[in-house]
Amino acid sequence: MAEAVKSETKATVEALSPTRFVESQKHNTALFSEANELMLKTARALWESQSELFRLEAEHVTTIAPPKAGENPAAAIAAYCDQLHERTDHLVTHMRKTNDLVRDYGWQLLGIYARGFGQVVRDAQTPVIRNNKA
Question: N or C: which end of the chain has fewer CB within 10 A?
Answer without folding.
Answer: C
